[in-house]
Amino acid sequence: MNRQYANYALRRVLQAIVVILLAYVFTFIVISVLPGDPVTNTLRNPENGFTEDEINRIVAYYGLDRPVHVQLWEALSRFLVGDLGVSLRSGLPVSRLIGEVLPSTLVLASSALAVSLVLAAATGLGTQYLPKRYGQGLLRTFPSLFLSVPNFVIGLVLINVFSFQLGLFRVIDSEAPLATLFAAVALGIPVSAQVAEVLIANLDHEARQEYASVARSRGLGQTRLFLRHLLKPSSLPVVTVVALTVGELLGGALITETIFGRTGIGSLVQRSVTTQDLPVLQAVVTLAAVVFVVVNLVADLVYPLLDPRVRLGGTQPVQRDRTAVVAP
Q1: For the chain, does the N or the C end have fewer beta carbons within 10 angstroms?
Q2: Per CATH, which fold does 94-324 belong to?
Q3: What rounded mean pLDDT belongs to the chain?
């Protein structure tokens, strides 16, 4: 099993590397064919204050006076050693610009992910064990409600209520813990809808299985049944959904940062689009692709560890009779 898993993990890692390289190449090609000349529009713009020597150095660095395929090869070579290029707007290394704002975005995205998982777990648990007269049916409508409300609307409501009216946090102090928490709530609520929907559907499915009925007949309590037998198989599809929602977290983080006035990747992208700073845009798009691929790679590697029925050779999972292993 260990050797088989090691081969499986190696294949997935190699596939992830190929996907990242293809994403970088695709981004470079798309940006290269966009209308407009970055040399004319940015470097030679008098407002930017570049001297002729600085322009010549940047042109030579990117090979802007060479064919596109030569530029691609040089850019890919730099990317492989971690060199993301130089900003056409400020002349600073792109890695430095991203490094200054990335921690704020990562804190927001990770906090929003934690909020979404807590909301999804609470909703899923409530739909199984909350009595109907106390709103079990209402809880099942929450995912649709959360998904239908954009995160910027939630953010504006939270700012109006908890900042302007209650004064719990200040918008001008956007990096404060409470401000970060409310920004994470605004971003995490829509994301939690997809996770909760999948979790509820799988909990309903597992609760109807024969092994669950056998466990109940043996006197196993609802809490132990949920924790020992229902939660794990129901959470397996959630792992996949969480990995797929990373893109939504990153995209939503850009909007949420603007609403809450946070300095992050969103503000960097906004400035880069305005000034046509193509190296920064390419680096940000590639970074998003890297994060998405890495998170999905982790999900692929974790899934066989959570479910031993998954065959690492790529065939369909082997079904087992769970009634034989249920014990109170």
Answers
A1: N
A2: MetI-like fold (1.10.3720)
A3: 80
